[in-house]
TrEMBL record:
Its cofactor is pyridoxal 5'-phosphate. Signal peptide: none annotated. GO terms for molecular function: alanine racemase activity; pyridoxal phosphate binding. This is Alanine/ornithine racemase family PLP-dependent enzyme. The keyword Repeat does not apply. It holds the Pfam family Ala_racemase_N. Keywords: Isomerase, Pyridoxal phosphate. It comes from Salibacter halophilus. Residues 9-226 form the Alanine racemase N-terminal domain.
Length: 356
């Protein structure tokens, strides 16, 4: 069976790197754990780093956090579904919101549970995912202010998550100005402006994040150590906190070109044939995972001589050429992961998860 390893020393190093960066800039931050898909061992390791806030988009994952350490502040980072209101109030100390009716229901549930539920009002800054339109924000906030068991802990926004709209200094200034307008009109302090995610960190490193942005929520850079602007590794960070390992279950020399009448495969793909490959052979290896677990697009073989040539539901095909590395059946092949690849693999029940 294929398996993942999470390297605790590399995770700790990346955490300490980011913690220092934020402390130097007088910014608070929370760790996003949604890529860990509720894995108890991995979440426990994140809590052991010393974080006091954890963000996730699955309430079952926040339940795991509370079971491990009830003192950690849990943040639900997408607009709540109405059918989940009771569990969100129970397991999430804070939730991100953009719909008044949902917030009203959170207020009623918070009364029943004898709690004050904190919310972050999400504001649309152009990526067109969740968020209240800026022109409607004052009226929106005014209605929420009247709810007895709701506390507005902050305002925030998401960029780059849907249409790829990149953050900029101007957009972050805009978000900060919304906070100032709310505070001036309602004479109410908004503690946090959470405008920062992994994609905003390169701006912070360049001194281009306005002082009004005082909270970040970070997942991808913690686990993968990449600059999401340049798509290059961040110096002094590890890119392989999480790695994939898979066993070779077949290795043979075979023709490079399929033989027979061609049609679409079960994924609806038609194989494109390079005529120069007719009559040629190469070594092909099969490893023990497939499309059910991950898209090959999100895997990067550690060995640069290995090429991923295709995948079926539960097998993935590697092109080894002349196999100068002398791979054998039973050998383990390792891969670095892109974010979405790690997310898929951690969500797969067929992949073992180890802590190293």
């Amino acid at each position: 069976m294929a398996y993942l390893k999470l390297f605790r020393d590399k995770l700790k190093h990346n955490y300490q790197y980011l913690d220092k960066l934020f402390k130097d800039n007088d910014i608070e931050w929370a760790v996003v754990t949604k890529v860990l898909c509720g894995n108890r061992d991995y979440i426990h390791e994140v809590i052991n780093l010393g974080t006091h806030e954890i963000c996730d988009s699955r309430i079952s994952n926040l339940k795991v956090v509370k079971e491990i350490d009830p003192s950690v502040q849990t943040i639900y980072i997408k607009p709540p579904a109405k059918r989940s209101i009771s569990t969100i109030v129970r397991y999430a100390d804070v939730s991100f919101n953009s719909e008044y009716e949902t917030i009203r229901m959170l207020n009623e549930e918070a009364k029943k549970q004898e709690k004050t539920h904190k919310i972050v009002i999400m504001i649309e800054l152009g990526d067109l995912r969740e968020g209240v339109m800026g022109a409607d924000l004052m009226d929106f906030y005014g209605r929420i202010f009247e709810l007895s068991n709701i506390e507005v802990a902050g305002i925030g926004s998401n960029l780059n998550c849907l249409h790829g709209v990149m953050p900029s200094q101007d957009k972050l200034v805009q978000l900060s100005l919304y906070e100032q307008l709310i505070e001036a009109k309602f004479d109410q302090k908004i503690p946090y402006v959470t405008g920062g995610t992994s994609v905003v960190i390169p701006l912070l490193m360049k001194g281009q994040v306005p002082q009004g942005i005082n909270h970040f929520r970070v997942g991808e850079m913690l686990y993968f150590g990449n600059d999401l602007f340049s798509e290059e590794p961040v110096e002094d960070m590890y890119q392989d906190v999480i790695k994939l390992y898979a066993e070779i279950i077949e290795l043979m020399e075979k023709p490079k070109v399929p033989i027979g009448t061609m049609a679409a495969n079960p994924s609806g793909e038609m194989t494109e044939i390079d005529e120069e490959d007719y009559g040629k052979k190469s070594y092909r290896a099969i490893i023990d995972l497939g499309l059910l677990d991950v898209s090959p697009d999100f895997l990067v073989p550690d060995d640069p001589n290995i090429e991923i040539t295709g995948a079926s539901s539960d097998m993935l095909i590697l092109e080894l050429g002349e196999n100068k590395q002398d791979f054998q059946v039973g050998d383990i092949v390792s891969f670095n992961l892109k974010y979405m690849g790690a997310l898929s693999l951690l969500n797969s029940d067929y992949i073992d998860k180890l802590l190293v």
